[in-house]
Structures are given as structure tokens and as C-alpha cells.
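Hi L., both proteins are below.
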Amino acid sequence: MFHSRIGVTGLGIRTRIAPEWDTSMTISIESQRRRLLRHGFIFLFMGAWLGIATAILPHPRAWLAAHLTAFFACLILVAIGLVWRELHLTERQRSIGLIAGFTSAYLGLAANVFSAIVDLPGPASQPGVPAPMPQAAIFFTLLAIVVPTTLIAFGLVMYGMRGEPDRG
């Protein structure tokens, strides 16, 4: 395959393309978009299995939270993947958004699974019950990573949606 600032073809023939059209960036964007969609469907698969865990494992309310977290992460990753081409972001911003998004999705699910395994009491599930310290410290450490990375990922997507859509 022939790569140049002028164009890319499979036969090595130079073709003229618009100067604002960077082919390597387009390939990277498409790769990132497919990665977002693939991980979204991985979360869909995990969510189905966590639904089974809800039915057969102890602490079904905690497993239900993990089950729903997987489905919401699936929905969010697929939705971001579908708008990925439309975002007005630099390559660095896209990279940060991907890392933050995947970090928040996977660590958020891990925090919920951990909470279900150790039956960590929460303010909604068991109000007034203090959390045991070793487990709570692990959970809050995960939460301290999940919250900022979620805000960074969502913030970059919202920032990328600024302006008018490309007409090209």
C-alpha cells in the first residue's frame, strides 16, 4: 500500500485528495470506533452472564447492580462508538477519551462485582449500615478512579460534539 500526503491507494497510484482529509487519521478513527463498538458488545455479553449471577448467587441485589452496570456501559460505549466519526477532537483528545472511557467502564464494573462478592453495604441498598473498612477502602479507591475518568470521557465527547457536522 502506498502512503503519501497526496493520497493512499492499494495499487501504489497517487490520487489527489482534499488537503483537510488525512487518511492515516481516518484509519485511526475507524479503528477506535470499531474498538468502542467491540468493547460495548463485550459488556453486553458480560451483562447477560451477570444476569445469571443475579439468579443463582447470594446477594442478588448487589449482582443486579453489576448486571445493570454492564448493560449501561454497553449502551454508552456503543453510543459513543456510533458518534465517534462526528467528534471534532484532536488525535490526543481521542486517545485520552478512549483511555478514560475504557478505564471508567471496566473499573466501574469491577467495583460493582467486588461489591457484590463481599456484600458491601451501600447508602441505597443498606442505609445506615457502615461499610467494613478494608473492603470500603478498596471500593472507594476504585470509585476515586471511576468518577474522574467518567467525567473526562463524557466531557470530551460533549466537547467533540461542538460546532456543525462536517459536510464532506
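That was the first. Here is the second:
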Amino acid sequence: MVTLVLRFKGSMGTVRGIRRLVRLIAFGLVVGAIATELSKPQAERTWHGRVLDMVPYDFRPPTWERIRSAYWNPNSERLFNDRVFGVGWAVNLHRAKTLMEEGFRQLMGTEAAVSIRMTSRSDPDVTNTTE
């Protein structure tokens, strides 16, 4: 039987104790994910799945498509996607941007932001009124 003892001494001790606990949990999840894969017959190992049916893991080499879909996916309403490599979740930055814009508009009582499109000087549809 293993007993985990965390000692908290003041605010710095609390932060250090929390960091230790987070590192220990992360290490345990990585070990659990690897053990899950190694317990399968070699033909059935996929190197991606979930630890304890909750925390996603993926040890396959990342591809640009998977990176893009995890970190910038306008088609997804999820804020947290499965991580591209490792254990845990990735933040869908497009969804985070959308939520922050919505929150800002609600807070400030403004309408939707106007999209700014950069054009080149050779674009015939754009007239320059400043010259």
C-alpha cells in the first residue's frame, strides 16, 4: 500500500504541493495509457484511446490534419478536443475565440464584430477614397 502525504506550509508550500500532485497524476495517466496498450495483443494495439474510460491519450505520430482539427476547428462546438500527442485534452482555439468574443459582446452590450478583410491594391472591386 502506498500513502501519499502532501505537506502544505504557507502559500508557496501549497503551490508546490499542488504542482507535485498534478505531476503525479499526469505521470500516472501516462503509465496507465502505456500499460493499457501493452496489455493488448500486439496486433490490437492502436496507441490511442482513453485511460479509465475518461482521459484521452494518443501516442501515434501527429499529422498536420490532426493538429489542425484539435487546435483550430471551426466545425466543432467543443472547447476541449482530444490531444494530438500525449495524454489529456487540447484547447480548440477557434471555439475559445468565439466564446471570448460572445462574452465580450454581452459584457459591453455591442453587436457582432465586423470582419476585416485585407485586400491588395490591384483588387478592382475596392476603391481607395483616401487618395
